[in-house]
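The protein record reproduced below.
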Amino acid sequence: MIKKGIVKNVQPNGTWEGQYGLMYKFEVTIGDDTGQCMSKSEQCKFEVGQETDYEFVDGKYPKIKPVSNFQQGAYKPQPKNDNVQEYIIKQNALTNATSFVCNNGGTPTDVLEIAEIFSNWVLKGEKPKADDTNDMPF
């Protein structure tokens, strides 16, 4: 049964070697319920004074288990930017323009001008005119 309450007491109560390795036992009191809680670490998941959701399993050996408040589907991915492909093309054009200018000599302004020519050809189908290359300083 899942309940909500304030943790009143947490006491270490030894260890136990189980199929998942060494487990730490704690005796935990939340509200009017007292039971055993197991943990893979030396730190109990419950803290005194903390209000928490927990599962209480009554019986000869009562157990108290933490309840996860994780809500599946709470993650909302950001909308994908429609310009991603354009940015990729421009980065590629810039890289190739840099290579071209470095091999032929030029300035950063030359790199940007050539990158614009490359990206315009890919994005808009604009081919450079024959006289566009004559304006280059190299």
